[in-house]
Design goal:
This protein is mainly alpha-helical. It is about 70% helix and about 0% strand. Helix 1 packs antiparallel against helix 2.
Amino acid sequence: GFTPEQASRFDVLVEAMNLRLRGQIEKFARAVQDGQPLTPEVGARLIRDLSADVVTTYEELDRELPQWRSVDQGRLDLGNFVDPKIAEPLVTIEDDLRQIERRSER
């Protein structure tokens, strides 16, 4: 239900969200590589930061494309627009994450 200009703006906002999400994951991966312990608090903070980036995008959509709410009646799930490539930085800490997974299984 968007005009071509609105669709382009939507794409820009989603791309910006993906860049912010990737930036958070890169920051997390660097901290782990630098020796920061992976504690429940660190995980909770990462989830908070990622969630905040998604919420920011919902707010940007409301501000810049308010009609998107009437089109989808608020059912649009931005999670469907997250690019899986944002998680690539986690490859660098894959072994660390596996160790944590093994510890939690015990």
